[in-house]
DNA sequence: TGAATCATGTAACTGGTTACATGATTGT
DNA sequence: ACAATCATGTAACCAGTTACATGATTCA
């Protein structure tokens, strides 16, 4: 149900599906990726339920744009949702599942390569977040003191991204270290992983 | 596709769907929650594809147990999966979406209560992870030095949980602080949030 | 001429949730 | 007598992904 509410949240200002996708890319997608097709489907559903209304404008390029705004009912639904209990616990981390079973792979290099690659990916994401911070929140003040209520809450989600990403990077560094030491022990000591496994 | 592979990973040892659920609860569920119904459906699918095989044993209590083991093809599928690129980027954090739009709620207390509740939840999860660490990885040695390859990788996912959870808790503490200061400023200074919003 | 961007979608499928059903045994 | 636990599932539904379709304009 969350994409529904996210769209309701963004549609205080009238926007088309296509433009919403762009807004996603530079903010929401960091904690809630969504594809254009699904945005369209969800907008239709929300309109059918009376939470959004829609007006069509012809555009000079391509087909006419459908611009959505939320209704009073839409706003109420959104408010009810943010006042619910924080919905924690249904996050799924595919890469951790892969790592959990990585001893199935015969070679240590697989694990080391994997975590090194994780590090690259996390580091790229951290940089993207840092760029948003410096471009869009330069004026935040200490702890977001100088921001409006709306921007303050957005700032908080960004901060959460920054600090968990930093923690993940630290984990990567420590892990790469441990793995290298393990590999060192094995090659000077006894046998490689491929042969210890039955 | 991940649940498929997780089940393949767990089914090196023959286990029933019911028992797999219990294994989930104390390890996998921390990064990949799954429900019993879906485990059953997935087991059936994997058997149909020839990645698992299944034998039925009558039990003293309730219906006969269906015990699954992975086939050679199942093991290959698992190995191929762990050697893929780390699958990062499709995680969805509902609670961050809620927070992002929380200025929609008229009162500051909503935000403060929300983050305080997040703190409680994260803290509970951290404790659960710490308990696993102390019960199942007491013998790990520095950086998991003393663990088998298999347990070492499990240990890594646990460590990732511990350190990201710690980072989240820090964020909660800082955020609660910032919010309290904001509330202080507002009530001694000007107007409450309910009235600043149009 | 052909690729990129604008702007909309539909259809088929896969994965996950919720609600319901069955029926035996064990313990209070 | 009743709840909890053991152990299996099905059916209906909802959310998200992938592939495909349309058709105009702008730029190299």
Compact description:
Chain A is mainly α. Chain A has helices at residues 2-10, 17-26, 36-48, 72-82, 94-100, 108-136, 149-188, 193-196, and strands at residues 15-16, 52-57, 65-70.
Helix-strand layout with pairing:
Two copies of one chain form a homodimer.
Chain A: H1 2-10, E1 15-16, H2 17-26, H3 36-48, E2 52-57, E3 65-70, H4 72-82, H5 94-100, H6 108-136, H7 149-188, H8 193-196
Antiparallel strand pairs in A: 1-3, 2-3
Chain A binds a DNA duplex (28 and 28 nucleotides) through residues 1-3, 16-19, 34-38, 40-42, 44, 59-66, 90.
What descriptive keywords fit this protein?
3-stranded antiparallel sheet, homodimer, 198 residues, DNA-binding
Strand order of the largest sheet of chain A: 1-3-2
Order of helices and strands of chain A: HEHHEEHHHHH
Low-confidence stretches of chain A: none
What is the averaged pLDDT score of chain A?
Answer: 92
Largest sheet of chain A: 3 strands, antiparallel
User: Pair with the most extensive interface?
Assistant: A-B, 75 and 75 residues
Strand content of chain A: 5-15%
Can you give the helix content of chain A as a percent range?
A: 55-70%
User: How would you name the oligomeric state of the polypeptide chains in this document?
Assistant: homodimer
Q: What is the terminal separation of chain A in angstroms?
A: 46 Å
Q: How many runs of DSSP E, i.e. beta strands of chain A?
A: 3
Which structural class matches the secondary elements of chain A?
mainly alpha
**Approximate shape of chain A:** elongated
Number of helices of chain A: 8
Radius of gyration of chain A: 23 Å
